[in-house]
Amino acid sequence: MKLTILGCFSATPRKDTNPTAQVLEINNHLFLIDCGEGTQVELRRNKIKFARIKHIFISHLHGDHFFGLVGLISTFRLLTRETELHIHCPQGLKEVIVLQMKLADSWTNYPLFFHELNSDDSELIFEDDKVEVWTIPLDHRVYTNGFLFKEKEGERHLNMPAVIEANIDIAYYNKLKQGHDVLNRDGVLIDHQKVTSPPSPPKSYAFCSDTAYKESIVPIIKDVDVLYHESTFLEKHAHLAPKTKHSTAKEAALIAKKANVKILILGHYSTRYDDLNEFKHEAETIFKPVKLARDGKHFDFD
Amino acid sequence: MKLTILGCFSATPRKDTNPTAQVLEINNHLFLIDCGEGTQVELRRNKIKFARIKHIFISHLHGDHFFGLVGLISTFRLLTRETELHIHCPQGLKEVIVLQMKLADSWTNYPLFFHELNSDDSELIFEDDKVEVWTIPLDHRVYTNGFLFKEKEGERHLNMPAVIEANIDIAYYNKLKQGHDVLNRDGVLIDHQKVTSPPSPPKSYAFCSDTAYKESIVPIIKDVDVLYHESTFLEKHAHLAPKTKHSTAKEAALIAKKANVKILILGHYSTRYDDLNEFKHEAETIFKPVKLARDGKHFDFD
């Protein structure tokens, strides 16, 4: 599981700071999460292959989280993409995009699907044999979801010397990986646990931005490996958090602690702060380890 | 009259090339012409004060000419702009912008006016005591206008030693500047031409992008000081120009020659070309002088 931060600052794009966008690589999927203005250029800068992105998740319809989407969709068209693209987003975004296509008389030459969200409950919005994606209902000024990405339990690993020693035909290897006992060439039933080791623990990532402090998300994100939680403010500006429906670094850390996550990543910093280390120090009074998102930063969780 | 090129490449924004946007400073006005994705960052990079932009002119509704507008409008709001903003654009853009404001529940705190265009004739769309702006109907795949910016005739310049020698009261100086003969302190009628010199010749700038070769624009842009004309292609790809409704460098030069402009600036290059000097060389076989637009380039025509 790998995470590339394309942008992690709040509000407006500037010369050296980008609005929210990140790419999660999990079990060979490449998921784009949020898409602020300039995201397509940051994708190029980080050498991420456009064609590998098949699903885009948009948290909410504030501009710093989606103004780059229409341009990305349009660029995919100009690059003669053929792969289908799925947008998971709050209700209303399809109308915005389609209206602009209509005015430009430019329709995609690849299949484009919108999956619009309006539930206030956590729901499963994507699933295949390897990965699940769930919404995390957040508390912001407009309808907002975070997203929980979970690997499914993988297959058991064959212990090859033991498998050979047990005289098992290759035709049964997949059964063993799936956790079944099998007959060997001599007709003896072999306990799969004796010739395989347990699957690697499935990884999980929770993206929570933008949101006020919201304790009710804790059960949804319980025990995740990595939590990205917004920290627009430091505690010295805590009075601004409730009315703008954002969080402080300390609040993000409280959520991380209650949810028993393994790693907390902070981001969505207000551009009023010069020293981002203050976010880390503040959060570390509650929870460790804390990592700081930075534009262009790459995290490898394998 | 000064021109700053924020972006001059066609199609998609990339690491080192920006889509169309430019700022024209003329008679103390700062006009933004087109607004591709990333324009707000380029405005910051070129240290252009946001508050000085009161009029934005959008040529057409292809993304590389307006996808940066919604973000710019939104950033103005976040910066608590109070100055009014006027958008001159093809019909339909207001709906796109307003829909996004509605979804974000974020309305501007400054007065925002849309002046939507749908005429196929050249029309006067802005005028004050110093400047006029006219549309230049172009020939592209969607409804498109270029824009002609013209200084009005200025005031005559006082020849101060002559004025003093003629014994004229200061109360009459403005009348002289406006070209009236006045009485001096001795009651003698003074010919204004004897104590003033003619006004500086008014400057003019024509922006023509995107368009196929269209000779009927020649009378509209006749004798302008500076013509920016798109040249998406070189002649070696001339076969692509009619179907995409773009021009070659040679065609841009033909328009410049027929219109008897003083300077031609080329831009809106296809990103297939590595050496932009080929555009200049090709155009110079027809017309001189030719300048090449480049992102971040500043032209001073005073």
UniProtKB/TrEMBL annotation, chains A, B:
Ligand binding (Zn(2+) 2): 64-65, 210, 268
E.C. designation(s): 3.1.26.11
The keyword Zinc is assigned to this record: yes
Catalytic reaction annotation: Endonucleolytic cleavage of RNA, removing extra 3' nucleotides from tRNA precursor, generating 3' termini of tRNAs. A 3'-hydroxy group is left at the tRNA terminus and a 5'-phosphoryl group is left at the trailer molecule
Pfam family, one: Anti-Pycsar_Apyc1
Alphabetic keyword roster: Endonuclease, Hydrolase, Metal-binding, Nuclease, tRNA processing, Zinc
Enzyme class: hydrolase
Free-text cofactor note: Binds 2 Zn(2+) ions.
Annotated binding of Zn(2+) 1, by residue: 60, 62, 140, 210
Matching SUPFAM superfamilies: Metallo-hydrolase/oxidoreductase (SSF56281)
Molecular function (Gene Ontology), one example: 3'-tRNA processing endoribonuclease activity
InterPro entries referenced in this protein's UniProt entry, alphabetically: RibonucZ/Hydroxyglut_hydro, RNase_Z/BN
Co-factor requirement: Zn(2+)
Catalytic center residues: 64
Subunit structure and binding partners: Homodimer.
Function of the molecule: Zinc phosphodiesterase, which displays some tRNA 3'-processing endonuclease activity. Probably involved in tRNA maturation, by removing a 3'-trailer from precursor tRNA.
Family according to the record: Belongs to the RNase Z family.
Protein name: Ribonuclease Z
Provenance organism: Gelidibacter salicanalis
